[in-house]
Amino acid sequence: MMMMFEEMGFCNDLDTMSTVLGDEDISARQTDLEAIIEDDFSDEEIGVDELERRMWKDKMRLKRLKEQSKSKEGIDAVKQRQSQEQARRKKMSRAQDGILEYMRKMMEVCKAQRFVYGIIPEKGKPVTGASDNLREWWKDKVRFD
Q1: Contact 131, 102 (CB under 8 A)
Q2: What H or E segment, with its residue span, contains residue 10?
Q3: Model confidence pLDDT, tens digit, residues 31-77
Q4: 41-77 b/e with 16+ CB inside 10 Å = b?
Q5: From CA 140, how far away is CA 46, in angstroms rounded?
Q6: Residue 9's pLDDT band (cuts 50, 70, 90)
């Protein structure tokens, strides 16, 4: 193993290895960090007014963050409801198109003269339809409550 270090250009003293790798920088960073922590948390240096001011700032920051998270949740919920409603309307439209296509085929194949239909969804307004020759009568006479 020593042979490997000698080939790399290091001498037999492994302490120089630690200086090459930057252990001094790590210890200097740790002392800087400890000094910062001591500055933040020393009770003797911070006055009551300063501490109250910091607490007030932190409370205001917390309040702002809570409001932002609530507004994001509200926006997400609204978007989700809108997308669900849009998907429901799209499905209803496809169902209505399917019914109309089926009724048209019935009129062609079975020689049906007229047709009417109504779909009453759980939510939303009813969807109705009729053949051309009954459409006006259907809209005037029939109401869904």
Answers
A1: no
A2: none
A3: 665 665 555 555 567 788 888 899 999 999 999 998 888 878 777 88
A4: eeeeeeeeeeeeeeeeeeeeeeeeeeeeeeeeeeeee
A5: 81
A6: low
Q: Tokens in use for 107? A: 């009129």
Q: How far apart are CA 14 and CA 9, in angstroms?
A: 12
Residue 50 CA: distances (Å) to CA of 35, 43, 44, 63, 142: 19, 11, 12, 20, 75
φ, ψ dihedrals at 119, nearest 5° = -120, 125
Distance between CA atoms of residues 11 and 14, nearest Å: 7
**Residue position matching structure tokens 């193993």:** 1
Residue that the structure tokens 């969804």 belong to: 121
| The pLDDT value given to residue 45 | 73
Paired tokens of 70: 């609530």
